[in-house]
Amino acid sequence: MTVSIRRYERLPGQHIHSFDQIVLPFAGTMDIEIGSRGGKVDAGHGALIAAGQRHVFHAEPGDRFIVVDMDDIAIVPERGAFFPIPSAIAHLLGYVRARQDNSAQHSDLHVPLPDMFARPWATLLVDALFGLETSPVDSGGRAIARAFKFMRANLEKRCTTAEIAAAAGLGERRLHALFHARFGSTPREELMRLRLDFARALLCSTSLPIAEIAVMSGHADQSALTRRMRDVRGITPAVARRIASA
């Protein structure tokens, strides 16, 4: 888990990464599209970006944002969401601002905060975000988050719905009901989505062979990944990689 203050160039940026991310305002406004959802990160709003979710953004060069890379824990059970910033989180943001020299114009694009400070601060942030009634995660969200954490940790394995339910601390029927209410899909369908998201993230960010990526993302072989991605996403792995490198 890392916390940093980041600036972005004037031109719009397009990112995809293999970990969940929280983006919060520091100074300025960011227009961002997460998947097909558009919104802003500004004084009153933050953004949750799920692993493997393509996002496009634009901010002015002088604008800065607090970015939390959740590279060692999965916390976002949605495909991406925007949320209002309540007072508990506003106080945490104010604390970071107070520690920084706001009179200085930092030229660095990426200023990491010391791990000694960043990790406990980020833990408080996650607790505040996912424990509030205004959070995108409802009372069943923590169980769903546990299910997603288990699935992401076992993408390459043949895990069953019963195993996913056990990891979430639920029975299979309750797990199905929560997933249907939240996503309109089944746990198996969401697992397939995660596998495709992970495969695409690897295709776009690494030079690993497609056959190796197929196995790492839980597909039997390269042909299975190609069929699944073409049927569900309308694109092949080779084309996805070519578009990302263009």
Automatic annotation (TrEMBL):
Domain of life: Bacteria
Record carries keyword Lipid biosynthesis: no
Domain HTH araC/xylS-type: start-end pairs: 145-243
Keyword presence, ATP-binding: no
Transmembrane segments: none
Key words of the record: DNA-binding, Transcription, Transcription regulation
SMART domains documented for this protein: HTH_ARAC
Name the UniProt record assigns to this protein: AraC family transcriptional regulator
Source lineage: Bacteria, Pseudomonadati, Pseudomonadota, Alphaproteobacteria, Acetobacterales
